[in-house]
Amino acid sequence: MNREKSSIKPKLMWDPSVDMIRCCAFTMVVMVHFFLNSGIYNLPVASKTAFAMCTLRSFSVASVPLFMMLTGFLQKEKRPEVSYFVRIIPVLTVYGLCSLANIAFTDIYASVHDTPAQVVMKILNFKGAKYAWYVEMYITLFLTAPYINLAWKGLKNRRARSVLIGIACFTAIAPALLNIWDIGSLEWWRRPSSGSEYNKLVPDWFKRLYPFAYYLIGCYLAEYKIRLKRTKCVCGIIIMTIAAGAFNYWRSWPGKFISGDWSNYASPFTAAIAVLVFIYFLSGNYENMSTRTRSFWKAWASVTFGAYLLSRIPDIVVYNRLAQFVPNPGSRLVWMFVTVPVIAVISCIMSRIVNIVAVPLAGKLTALVSDFMKQCKDSTKA
């Protein structure tokens, strides 16, 4: 009997690093929205508070690249098959239900009354939820991912794949730092916020394709299992965050915060921070993590997508209250450490409620579409 027990292989446990990355990215998104909604952008960038704002924002902006890299990390083995493409249905189902929740909230809270036709158009135009731009981007990334994977697999060695990533980063990410200088103006160098005309040093036609660059980076991290000492990752994150904060402070000084390519998702600073955060979680040792802790991360990760789409609702309520409670925008930064957890928790609870409907509904829709596609395939064979 003992021999039989000893011969049983232990069940492989899900690597929690993926869930932890997703949860971290979601929390960072809520941080980004703090700066968007708290009125801090209206402050002159000429104080310690403004420098702290620029620095914290520079870190939190890495949230979206983390999600994009995670997509490449998890999807790199997918092929262009019906079983893959129908997996977009749960995403669209959650988006549709979260959009309805956002529209209903706006109807009640702001007395904006939409007709059924307007509701449908808002959902189709990705305006049902304010933060739905990511869903619009993700649909294209999802649909093209299997074909990107075929190209990735077609490159037979690490060097060729590194060159591909280098080209992607050069065309989509590097312009955010190289094409932002007015080289011939001494006044501009003294105060960069004085002008917005820049010299183009490298081609930037494809700079909006940065999601594909991050997708490829995710594929690379999964393929070659990049690991570093976590202390090195932390040091790198701190250095890059402070450097990005100082640079963004300089670009806006002494006026209001200027949001440009250099401070957003395609910035090389942002890319470096995101990669280091990603590797930090991958490099952890989770063998001794308890089942309960793993379950916590998995449960939290399962609601982050819906929570992201629904977070606009608590954003409106919480930041309206914050503006009343703290009239001076310059005193609101410290409240980020209160509002962000509160909004994250409320959003996750709402997402959990939506999932009660979305999960079984998406399952039925996926089964219907899969059966329909199977019938179409069988009829063509006949």
Which descriptors would you attach to this protein?
mainly alpha
Protein architecture, described:
With 382 residues, the chain is mainly α. It has a domain at 44-298. The chain is 69% helix and 0% strand. The longest helix has 46 residues, at 336-381.
Distance between the termini: 54 Å
Shape annotation:
globular
Low-confidence stretches: 1-12
Helix content: 55-70%
How do the SSEs run, as a string of H and E? HHHHHHHHHHHHHHHHHH
DSSP summary: helix tally: 18
Main pleated sheet: none
Which structural class matches the secondary elements? Answer: mainly alpha
Q: Give the overall pLDDT as a whole number.
A: 92
Give the radius of gyration. Answer: 23 Å
How much β-strand is present in the residues?
under 5%
> What is the number of beta strands?
0
Give the SSE layout.
Elements: H1 2-6, H2 16-37, H3 48-60, H4 63-75, H5 82-85, H6 88-109, H7 116-124, H8 133-154, H9 158-172, H10 175-178, H11 186-190, H12 210-224, H13 230-252, H14 268-282, H15 291-301, H16 304-310, H17 312-325, H18 336-381
Helix pairs in contact: 2-3, 2-4, 2-14, 2-15, 2-16, 2-18, 3-13, 4-8, 4-12, 4-14, 6-16, 6-18, 8-12, 9-12, 13-14, 16-18, 17-18
Please outline what is shown here.
By secondary structure, this protein is mainly alpha-helical. Helix content is 69%, strand content 0%. Helix 8 (133-154) crosses helix 12 (210-224).
